[in-house]
Write a structure and sequence with these properties.
263 residues; alpha+beta; Beta-Lactamase; 2 domains; two-stranded antiparallel sheet; 9 helices; 41% helix; 20% strand
Length: 263
């Protein structure tokens, strides 16, 4: 137990030391450990790739095996385990339909769904796919993935499916919506996938890059400006403290941006 704790303390200390890492002596001083004992611990961590040693400075730094663990921690299977309880709490809190989605190519894939007791009639199912640019979930991810219109168009430039009379089918208009999404920190979809239904979505960021998104869906006539503000506030207050370390929700920039919806 003592040796495991020593290794974990060393990794934690190196994670706070920055890219240059620390010399053995400095690390031992910070941890209050003997150098000989700590050297054996670091040797074991090096063997497994959790620590590397710079050939010029001799400094110890975090190794690539930690990245593999982090990636596995946020794999699709783990996402469901980690976020289903959060999605369930959010659904209970706002009493609206909630989804978890990931981007796969040009589509959004619905990974999880939690319905309130009195759910609205929305055609959605776990595993269902849809054109990402027509959904709040997809726009939330795309807006924080692409900062240049040409790069966006190269990936999503195919003809936008006309899902309802309200679907935005111009890429210039979709891109304008993306700019607003980045400013306010959440995406909106108003009757574009199904008439009478609106949706707002927020990306979950890792180092500023979206890995997936969560959404709240409700009848369009209930999604007025006041209700949207309430839902965004409730989602941020509930989800943020429950996120694993390293993940975050985006914050609004330069004001909330415009909100399309009933007055």
């Amino acid at each position: 137990m003592e040796s495991v704790d020593k290794a974990l303390l060393a990794l934690d200390c190196l994670s706070n030391a920055g890219g240059d890492g620390l010399q053995l002596g400095a690390l031992a001083t910070v941890l209050g450990l003997k150098k000989n004992s700590l050297h054996r611990t670091l040797a074991a961590l090096r063997y497994r790739g959790f620590v590397v040693q710079d050939g010029e400075t001799g400094n110890y730094q975090l190794g690539p095996s930690l990245l593999r663990l982090a990636n596995n921690y946020l794999s699709e299977g783990r996402l469901l385990t980690l976020f289903h309880p959060i999605l369930k709490e959010l659904c209970t809190s706002v009493n609206e339909l909630c989804h978890l989605g990931i981007l796969d190519g040009q589509d959004i894939v619905y990974m999880d769904k939690v319905e309130p007791e009195q759910s609205i009639r929305v055609w959605s199912a776990v595993g269902m796919r849809g054109a990402a640019v027509t959904t709040a979930l997809g726009r939330a991810i795309i807006a924080f993935s692409y900062k240049d219109y040409d790069n966006y168009l190269a990936k999503f430039g195919a003809e936008i499916p006309h899902r309802t009379p309200h679907t935005i089918t111009s890429h210039h208009d979709v891109w304008a919506e993306m700019q607003i999404t980045r400013l306010r920190g959440y995406a909106l979809e108003n009757q574009e996938g199904q008439e009478g239904v609106s949706c707002l979505a927020m990306p979950i960021l890792r180092n500023g890059f979206p890995v997936f998104a969560i959404s709240i869906t409700a009848p369009y006539d209930r999604m007025n400006r006041s209700r949207i503000t309430q839902l965004v506030t409730a989602a941020r207050e509930l989800v943020t403290p429950r996120l694993p370390i390293g993940l975050s929700l985006p914050l609004p920039q330069n004001g909330p941006g415009s909100v399309r919806g009933p007055a």
